[in-house]
Amino acid sequence: MKLNQLTIKELHKKLKAKEISPFEVATDVLSHVDGVEEDIHAYVSLNNNLLDDSKNVTEIDNPLAGIPIAVKDNMCTKGVLTTCSSEILYNHLPVYDATVVNKLKRQNYVMVGKTNLDEFAMGSSTENSAFKITRNPWNLETVPGGSSGGSAAAVAADMCIAALGSDTGGSIRQPASLCGVVGMKPTYGLVSRYGLVAFASSLDQIGPITKDVTDCAISLQAIAGHDNKDSTSLGVNTPDYRQALSAEVKGLKIGLIEELMVEGIQKEVKELTDHGLNLLEKMGASVGPVSLPHLEYALSAYYIIAPAEASSNLARFDSVRYGLREEAEDMVDTYKKTRAKGFGDEVKRRIMLGTYALSAGYYDAYYGQAQKVRTLIIDDFKKAFEKYDVLVSPTSPTTAFKIGEKATDPLQMYLSDICTIPVNLAGLPAISIPCGVDDKGLPVGFQIIGKHLDESTVIKAAYALEQEIGFKEKPKLLKRD
Amino acid sequence: MSDYEAVIGLEIHIELNTQSKMFCDCEVAFAGEPNTRTCEVCLGMPGSLPVTNEKAIQYIAKLGLALNCEIANFTQFHRKNYFYPDMPKDYQISQFDLPVAGKGYLDIESDTGEFKRIGITRAHIEEDTGKMLHISRTGRIHGADYSLVDFNRAGTPLAEVVTEPDIRNPDDARIFMQSLRNIALHLGISDVNMEEGSLRVDANVSLRKVGQKELGTKTEVKNMNSFRALKRALDFEIARHTKLLEAGERVVQETRHWDDAGGKTTSLRSKEEAHDYRYFPEPDLVPLTLKPSYIEEIRATLPELPEARRKRFEDQYSLVPHDARVLSFEKAVGDFFEESAKDYKNYKSLVNWIMGEFSYHLNNQGLAIDECALTPKHLVQLLKMIDDNTISGKIAKEVFDEMFNTGKLPSVIVEEKGLTQITDQSEIEKVVDMVLEENPQAVTDLKEGKDRALGFLVGQVMRLTKGKASPELVNKLLWEKIKQ
Amino acid sequence: MITKKDVEHIALLSRLDLTEEEKDKLVNQLGQILEHAGKIASLDTSKVEPTSHAVETKNVLRKDVKGPSLSQEEALSNAPEIEEGSFVVPKIV
């Protein structure tokens, strides 16, 4: 077995025992990437110093020391190209490292490269990248999900050991689900957003994409914690998430969200969700249905709030201090031409949508009302959590869809985030773990949502279910070698 | 007299003199090499985030309290969205419906001596922009070819004060600005220097028929870089409105630019659409709650403000209201007076010298009281030398002039120049005798009751003694001799 | 519901140059999305407070201490055009 196929935990054990070296791990990762990247297109850019960097790791004193990890290309890496998969940042070399990157560096990780995404994280298929379309390792004709499609595909295809993603409306969990890996969006404010190029500031959160729940806990441990450079970072001490890695769910109260099990959900997805729930029940958890009546408004609220914030966040791409510039007669035309050329269709659509929702005469009806709906959704979750410890649902209504299938219909594409969006609106932690495959052999994800800052319970439930399901399927692509 | 009255409201920006910027720890300073006090935050680099400077919040609360404003218990930042190259993020972190300071007022005293209360609409905190330098390849003043942008100033904490349209004439507008400036100086929150741009003012002007309630169409005037410019620009704009209205024409609502050299305002037309700032709560910053205890703490640290000082000067030093007002108007002047008054108890004389000779010299050289070489010690020593007859009042003015220019102590100047007053009667008597002998006609005139001749004779004595003779003694001796 | 004139106005506010074709497409797409989003208008929210931050935190402040800045070279390192230590932009009007 090649080293790139192992998990963080397995590699750490071997590295610590000096059975293997970081260089050997990096070598296996690199040679595999060289072999499959032309099929997958997971990376926007690769770290040309991967092998040298791995040689520099001499101490295995941290869980991530010497572990090859991929970073989504919307997190700033000092002196290393950071594009957000956008033409407008085609040449951008940040002058600083994102806080999460700093934290990984302190653990002596090795960066494999920067992964592809839907431009500025806007999308659910990674088709909106200005540079390439990432393919799902399970079926190269299908999308890996998005927007962290590059990260999820890279982990699924063993092109890295773990990856960082960002999740604004499901951008970690949905691609993790479609690629058959584990993805977690932590509580809003648990992981610093400093250096994450903002899409929708009140919803964005960085989290890990890993091969299993154990690696998820290890990675989360490394990146979580207060950061005084991010005013929305929570001033809390992070517990030891690895202590939650016990298969003990006896007495755990689990609520199945009724509204997310109805129309539009693929039959097998529904069945596998029920199956997962049954397993948890068998293990001693108490299970029941729960209704969150305002969830039907979540998608609408999200597609006002997120574009509104995005329209403001993306104003800075103006060709003055960095990024693309299209020459024109005067400043206003330079703005207009640069932004017309530098942004893709989906980004333009959302900027337009958000500007409209904030503009004079429409604010109250759209943005103001959406913020109130947000309050109602938060209250729904609060009520549900009075009765239950965690809530569950499918992660994505369907398994991976065909490339191009939804590309021309934005609304259809937006619907793929229907199960994940409410969690971002409420700022809660949630994980997606694989719970089986559909009749086309494509993986299905199971979402577990926790209370505010209760990542431990989420991890505990996920770990128990993971053990019970024993999901061992691997993408076809990997069976080939 | 015109049938119209002016209605003026001001919008003032004050750069706060904190150590670090509003949302990052870059240094706050004036000028310097371009783009050397910036970081990813104040350059609006992708991924960077703001963190609020607690001192800036304290300063805006102080200013709010000094302007008698209600201080909000709950306050929040909003984004004000508009594209401009000097605005790094293309939105400004500002405040909208939840400013730190709400309604308040400032009482000013008109040149006529009348007290007027000017309402404050609000005072809020925001970040400053960068600076642009417009370059023209042909050297034309208008129509620059391109611009250079320096972000050193970007992110400096900026207090914005908005007044109600309560001001009725350009002089009151100027006095309001001077009063506000003095308050900021007393609070120590800003350098409030109009030339350097740490104090900036825009004015809204409209005219209406005297007695009419509704407001007329307003214009907004920008680019007034001194108190004098403010007054001139408002005079010009009011005259322009008056002319239009009297000719039955309409005033166009627009922004106008004050051209100080040309002495006129011009329309600032651009191809930009009307602004729609799309304010929304800044998601990168969390709200602030200012507890009543915090507000009271700040109130307790407020220094004595001009109005309170004026009253105290009247009581403590028995100054007449006019003198008390002049001395308390500027912080540095009041400080100079009080420092001097510690060692010199003839306050009236002290006031006369500060408001007379001293103020004349300062105005002449365009200096502020704390910018010249003269200290309270100098002035006190000089006044004491007059009181003990070491020098005459006339010589004192000469000494003042010298010490103002050189910073030498009066005792040194008097010593160096041998200016000590002659009080030896026999010495003066000799000169008086000489003068009487040389001017028989004047003596005759004086004897015949032509008092003017006395002045002439005193002048002659003073000339011969180079001004050092005690004038009282000269007078006394002359009368004695004439009567003989 | 959303007209071409609206689209043109919003495009100017957003500083986006759009082709006629793009404008027509956006009239359709934005119309559809807004119609869907308009669902929320039917909710009675008169007694509901808006949420702008998912997690309730308050009073995050830093001490007023100055720290190091970037060098001029770093500050300008990504700029499309520079001159005399400054960013160059085309004429404003």
Helix and strand layout, with pairings?
The complex is a heterotrimer of chains A (481), B (484) and C (93).
Chain A: H1 8-16, H2 22-40, E1 43-46, H3 50-55, E2 68-72, H4 99-106, E3 110-115, H5 149-156, E4 162-167, H6 173-179, E5 182-185, E6 205-210, H7 213-223, E7 253-257, H8 267-282, E8 286-290, H9 298-313, H10 331-342, H11 345-358, H12 364-387, E9 390-394, H13 410-415, H14 421-426, E10 430-437, E11 443-450, H15 455-469, H16 476-480
Parallel strand pairs in A: 2-3, 2-4, 7-8, 7-9
Antiparallel strand pairs in A: 1-3, 4-6, 5-6, 5-10, 9-11, 10-11
Chain B: E1 4-15, E2 52-53, H1 54-66, E3 74-75, E4 78-81, E5 91-94, E6 104-109, E7 115-127, E8 131-135, E9 146-150, E10 157-163, H2 170-187, E11 199-209, E12 219-224, H3 227-246, E13 255-259, E14 264-267, E15 280-281, E16 288-289, H4 292-301, H5 306-317, H6 321-329, H7 331-341, H8 347-365, H9 376-387, H10 393-406, H11 410-417, H12 425-438, H13 440-447, H14 452-464, H15 471-483
Helix pairs in contact in B: 2-3, 5-6, 7-8, 7-9, 9-10, 12-14, 12-15, 13-14, 14-15
Chain C: H1 4-13, H2 20-37, E1 61-62, H3 72-76, E2 82-83, E3 86-90
Antiparallel strand pairs in C: 2-3
